[in-house]
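Quick one: structure for this chain?
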Amino acid sequence: MRVHTLTKFELRRRIDTIGAASGTAALTALIVASAVLGSSIGAGRGSLVLSEIIAISILPSAISIPMISVVTGAADATHRGDRSQILAGASRTSILLARLSASMLASTAVLIWSVTVASVVVVTTAVISGLPFRSGDLPGAFWGAVVLVYTSALFGLALGALLRSVAAGVIVVVLVTFVLDTATLALPAWTQILRFSSLQNALLGEGGVGVGAGTCAFTLWILLPATGAVIRMKREES
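Got it. Here's what it folds into:
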């Protein structure tokens, strides 16, 4: 089976479900709420800035995407979910590449949807309230959204593919992003190499995080888990 065929299969079995529809509705509600919150903050200052509201509205997506990617990476491993694809002639490497493609496509859809919803809320608020409206630093806002979404997707996918367990993957994501990243803020500066957020901060040029710390974070939370996932799949394939 070709990778693009497997990618379609992975997308279809993740999207064409009641859970996916409910999740999309919940995520949309959170994006709208974030955009409304951002608009309220802007209204308090007397003007609406689209770039700032996009930065706020992307946060629910950045939080949910690693969870979604864990599900994609782990697939149905505990229920031998790969068996039908393998029996159809697909290699485990092809399956992993298909899941990577599916995760990136899903992340792109979420990114576009988040920016679109935020823009609609801002424009609607500006028209109704009559408040002045300006775009702000849109390139910076888009770049920030891209970094948050795609690094989070790669993080979740790598963990899911390595652990082959949705529950374990989600627990690690929560511990790393909410517990470890927060706890190390009170520790010496060198501990920033342990934070997943250091990768994002390095790419965005924020938080005083250098390229070295960002590279260490990338290696620790994306490269090593992805390498481990590939090795594990190769062993299962042999």
